[in-house]
Amino acid sequence: MARTNGTRATLDAVATAAGVSKATVSKVLNGRPGVSGETRERVREAMRRVGYSPTVGPRDPAPAGSVQVVFDTLVNPYAVHVLDGVLAGAEELGAEVVTSVLRPNGGARTTPVGPAWLEQLSARGRAGLILVTSELTAEEIAACRRLGLGLVVVDPLNPLDENLVSVGATNWAGGVQATEHLLSLGHRRIGYAGGPARSVPARERLHGYREALESAGVPPAPELALLDSFQPDAGRRMADTLLDLADPPTAVFAGSDSIAMGVLAAARARGLRVPGELSVVGFDDTYGTLWTDPPLTTVHQPLRDMGRVAVRTTLLLARGEKPDSHHVQLATRLLVRGSTAPP
C-alpha cells in the first residue's frame, strides 16, 4: 500500500517489499543487466506498492547498454551481412556492440560458451547476448535466464523451442522458390548441396527442395541430396560427388552462396559451362554474388534486417519484456541472374 503520512518511500523499503537486495533494486531502476525478468517485475510491483518514485523521474528503461554478439566464424560473407545489421540496429537504439568469435579464421573452436563465461558477460555489464549460427546447451540457456541476459539466436542450430528466441528467414519457402525456378526451366535432375544436418536452416531448405520436387511430380532422388557445411570447399566436394554420378544433375541448388561458389569452382575445373551445362542457385544474396562468373541466381534472405531484429529483441528481453514472437522468420525472395538456364 502506498504511504500516506508524507514520508517518502526509500530503496530499502522497496527491497524489503520485493524480498531482494538494495543493489538489485538499483539495477532495476537504472535498467542495468543481471536481473531476471521475473525479479525485475517483482521490484516494479514493490515500487508501486510502497509508493516509491525516483527523485529525478522514472529511469527504467534506461540506456540500452551493450550487447555481446558471438559468431561461430567471421570467415564468410553471411556473417558480415548479419554483423552489419546488428551494428546498424544498435546505433539506432543507442546500444554498444562487442563481438567475439568461437572459431577464429574458421578453424578449431577456441572460445567456450558456458555458465562461467556467461557470468563474466553479466559482470561486465552486458545487457544481452546474440548468438549467430551456433548451438547452446540447456544449461547455458538457463544461465542466461538466471542472469537476466537477453538471449537471441540468429539461424540457430538448436531445434526451435519456446525456451529460445530466434531470428531467421523463411528457409523452407526459399528452398521451394529455388527449386521451383529450376523446375520451371525444365530441369528434372536437380541436386541439393546443403549445410550441416544439425542446422535448422539447412534442414528447412532441404525440406523446401523436396516439397517443390514432390509437388511437381518429380520423385526426390536420395543420391542427389547432400549435406556437409556452409563453406566453399564443402560445396566443391558435394559438387564433385554429384557430378561423378552415372546420371549427374543438370542443376544444383546450393544451401548458401558460399556453397554455390564451391559448386561453380568444381564446374570450372571440369570444363562445364554455367549455365549451359549446369545451372546453379545459391542462398543468402551476399557480397560477391553479382561478381561471380556468371552472376549467381540466389535466394535473398534479409540478413541485415535479421541483425537489426536480433539486437532490438535482445534489448527487449533484457528489460524483462516479452517478444511478439519467439521465432521470427523474415521473408525470402528469388533473384534470377545469369547462372541458371534451361537444360
Automatic annotation (TrEMBL):
Gene Ontology MF terms in the entry: DNA-binding transcription factor activity; transcription cis-regulatory region binding
One Pfam family, short name: Peripla_BP_3
Entry protein name: LacI family DNA-binding transcriptional regulator
Alphabetical list of PANTHER family matching this protein: LACI-RELATED TRANSCRIPTIONAL REPRESSOR, LACTOSE OPERON REPRESSOR
Segments forming domain HTH lacI-type: 9-54
Keywords: DNA-binding, Transcription, Transcription regulation
PROSITE patterns: HTH_LACI_2
Source organism of the structure: Streptomyces hainanensis
DNA-binding as UniProt keyword: yes
